[in-house]
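agent> step 3/5: call structure_predict on target 'Chloride channel protein' (Lates calcarifer).
agent> reason: downstream docking stage needs a structural representation; sequence fetched in step 2, passing through unchanged.
tool.input:
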Amino acid sequence: MESEQLYHRGYCRNSYNSIASASSDEELLDGAGVIMDFHTTEDDNLLDGDAASPGSNYAMSNGGGAASSSTHLLDFLEEPIPGVGTYDDFHTIDWVREKCKDRERHRKINSKKKESAWEFTKSLYDAWSGWLVVTLTGLASGALAGLIDIAADWMNDLKEGVCLSAMWFNHEQCCWTSNETTFAERDKCPQWKSWAELILGQAEGPGSYIMNYFMYIYWALSFAFLAVCLVKVFAPYACGSGIPEIKTILSGFIIRGYLGKWTLMIKTITLVLAVASGLSLGKEGPLVHVACCCGNIFSYLFPKYSKNEAKKREVLSAASAAGVSVAFGAPIGGVLFSLEEVSYYFPLKTLWRSFFAALVAAFVLRSINPFGNSRLVLFYVEYHTPWYLFELIPFILLGVFGGLWGSTRFGKYPVLEVILVAAITAVVAFPNPYTRQNTSELIKELFTDCGPLESSQLCQYRSQMNGSKAFTDNPNRPAGPGVYAAMWQLCLALIFKIIMTIFTFGLKVPSGLFIPSMAIGAIAGRIVGIAVEQLAYYHHDWFLFKEWCEVGADCITPGLYAMVGAAACLGGVTRMTVSLVVIVFELTGGLEYIVPLMAAVMTSKWVGDAFGREGIYEAHIRLNGYPFLDAKEEFTHTTLAREVMRPRRSDPPLAVLTQDDLTVEELQGVINETSYNGFPVIVSKESQRLVGFALRRDITIAIENARRKQEGIMLNSRVYFTQHAPTLPADSPRPLKLRSILDMSPFTVTDHTPMEIVVDIFRKLGLRQCLVTHNGIVLGIITKKNILEHLEELKQHTEPLAASWYYHKKRHPSPHGSNGKSRPRVHHVQLIGSFQDSRAGEGGDSEERRRRRRRRKCAS
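tool.output (status=ok):
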């Protein structure tokens, strides 16, 4: 049958032949071990004059083995041209080319290291440069995180007062050495003065309250105004959390300046100001951006990373792990966060270096000890009571709440002015003690278990006397007036946090979503925990509590509910699972609470996925229009490559270059008249056999370099991409050879390749473009942008796909025009038309059946 003939002719086989595993860790991409065989039976003598006989096998290996061809994948490495291989801003890198460049560099170093002691030293430096750059990144990340924590705590307390004995001390540090404090009022000491005491000379009364209220709003507005001005004037990229952009950069996208020194400097300063202003945001997310800026800056000290964009992204993956490590004091969780949430490509060596960077960053932060508690975070807690099986019910309910919170789409709201949001936040937050204090301190208070040393309002239970002894050790005791008052204040704080977080997200200041989401979940969890605790006390004879909660037994821990609620809300927003559980586990330091955490996090993910499968960062990427192919999305449609490729029927013909027929003037005309980033190179207009692919930027740089360094290059000079120059008249100007910039093995698929395979290739290999061919003849091109547009169209169109004959008729009309004449064979229209005519005589076999048969043969 004809489908079998097409298969034996290589129609299916040449699209995506085989994938072999890499031979070592140095073989970086998932497709780095791909081995492709191109069996050519005709037009071999037209290609480039190489010694290739008809029917010969041109083998190209990207793996670790020796190449069986004299032509490498990147031939331009033999004749390097300055600037070739670099990328413009807002462009996608070529992962395959970058990996091949790194392998070629590695081969050269290995071949020279035995020549002299100096070359051997250079090889050692190259081998250890990866560990050096992640060490520097970890040191800088830990130091900056400690600086940010100390400065943010000091400026946050500055809104309430000042320490007269030492201006650089915050409220807690100011009262450490005081002998006048009492246990009940441990936060009051003569050294610390509120603004009302400094200005009015009185600490109590309506006047002092109003003065403190006014100064709180004044400092909040000042910090917010200064932060937004610094971001707007010096570093616009310093706003937001930075995690969506880092995910996009790690996928191969270029955003110049986003990880630069100015962004690092302004982000560090404005992050302190934004947190101190009292806005409903956190510093944990932006710390990942700060760490990645450090990794990017230090990578320029090592040529191995500064000249290779793919290798640089390995450093950025390790830096993101260091950022989470210092944000939550969770080195292992940081590595898993980098693997699960942000990294696009994560080889084994990057896993080791990420762990080492997270370890170094955590060690530096622990040495600084910014909170004075010998811990890496402010809200580190330890629980000593077990949890019981019936508590899984409220834990799962908290997971449902977290999933509902995660389904909220912040990006749909307009971006409000920073000053307005800061003013509303300050005015509403001051009267409530749970919204007035720093969010990290609020989480710490909600996580903390009530004990004899706690003076929080949440721990003001009624003590019951048993003879002459009060058994205050029993946590399950009736709540006092302070607990009920705290419950109402927490309910108001929950509503306030939800509303203000929605409006704060997206402001042009550094803002993270980790801490606000954890605060919302912790508030809800503490409320539920206290409610369950009181139920267990007043109704201990219920079947739920009777078996576990005996009178006087240690039963319910409200702080544990707060921790589970915080994890559930954060998981619902980000859709994190494994890394989130490990992060919270490292916060608590106990394995006993893994099961309730897993139950709440998975429930929040399932509930959130019911409203939309993308997390907040994926939604942010989509709203900003970044070219990001999410590996978590499933492609279940039955479209083909020919339905997505460009050009379409209504588009201009595909812009191609011939291998030896163009002049410099004609080549520049093609570049000036089009906006494409690359051009397929074919044998001739008549043959249209594919030779390779040339990038627009490389062509422009090569022509400018040739005019500057070579004499005799004129507008009518012949341009050729072959190995040998074509035969020219004696009076012709000097030709220009551009073979060195030609990619001789661009990735190609046939026009009948299913799009699910094409999308999978783009995701796993990080391709920029893929050429669509039929029997070696170029039909069109598919870029990452085309795939994203196609996926968006499929999401928007909910109606069922049309029948295959409809696409057959719509995409491939008659090869004859309206005037009855044949269409000129200048691109794929005539080719496909003749191909359809050749298939028209095949009766009784539907297009869908033939398509399935070809898929089975390709799969086999």
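agent> step 4/5: record observation. The first helix runs from residue 2 to 8.
agent> proceeding.
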